[in-house]
Amino acid sequence: MTESATSADPSMQDWLAEHLTDEGPSIVGAGPQTDAEAAADDDAGETLHQLHVDVAAGSDIPDSQLLSVTDLDEPTDTTAAPAAPSDVNAGAKRTLVWLGSGVALTAAAIVLAFLVFGGGPAPVPAPQHSPVAAPAVVAVPTPSELPAPPQDQAVPFDPSTISCLGGPTSPLALTDSTNDSAWVCSRGPQESRIDGQILHVKFLCDRSRPESACSYIFNSLSVTPGCVPKTPGGKDEWLEHRVPKILQFNFYNGDQLAADPFFLDTKSVHGQVPATLSGKILASRVDVMILHTERPTPGPATGARGAGPDGVLPPSSGLLDSAAGSGDLPPPVLFDTAPGQLANDPVDATFCMSQLQFFGHSPN
């Protein structure tokens, strides 16, 4: 070996000596060796041992031996190439896959259970509110559907009196329109002939039952003062009796006065005098007071005072106003002498009324 090699190799020698001393070659057995391999290993071991001795003694080592030693330092791969390193995350991945599969299966099972068994808490029922009754819709009847108002008709009644002192005729004649009979009432003896007689009227449920008393709603009435014929061609006795002129009607329902007194001035009309009451009156009986009578005029009167087509009379004057305004009855008339008539004329002994009617209907 040359001087330059010697000077350049101390570092190499030192490295090799340190390498051989500290570490030494790592020889890994790969399995049972053959005789040739074992002999080769022995030769290599002897060579390494000799090199170790030489290095330790400081002797020069040829380059060819250095190369061989270097080659011996590297392990000889006598086995097949090692398998590729496995993935360290493979287990975690497999665990995640299993966990994901379990979660999916659990969710599917829960959904299936809900669908089959209706799982979950029972639904809370909606609060029940008491139904509010809708306002009843009342159909308004058309005019053609409205019930016809009850028609007034002559109400049957039973008349009676104790004021005529056995008069010539009965007041029942007032209810008969089939003949010319009339109610003729005596005014008393000549020295005490006065007016003020009272006629009691009781309304009947049926004409054939005088004992039955009923209440009716009255709207109007009619009076035929004096003796006039009620049938065509009947006998006229107009000039033979006095004529009721001022009448007062007191309506009662039972024992209670049903309305204010109603006054009527016939004006001594020769014929029927209709009158409309001041309002509807519910009554079961009436007291008719003959407040004033007068002698009949020679010629028949043309009509009632101010009576219109409906028979309604305007407010009266004179004697009627005095009686209605003050509540006092007019003074009785003892004598009512007309020109050409004597004070003791027989006409003054009686008065006559041909017909009396009350128009109304049942309250039911």
From TrEMBL:
Region listing for Disordered, in residue ranges: 1-43, 294-331
Low complexity composition-biased segments: 316-328
Keywords, sorted A to Z: Membrane, Transmembrane, Transmembrane helix
Compositional bias per record (Polar residues), positions renumbered to this chain: 1-10
The UniProt record lists the keyword Membrane: yes
Keyword Membrane in annotation: yes
Transmembrane segments: 96-117
Protein's recorded name: Serine/threonine protein kinase
Organism: [Mycobacterium] nativiensis
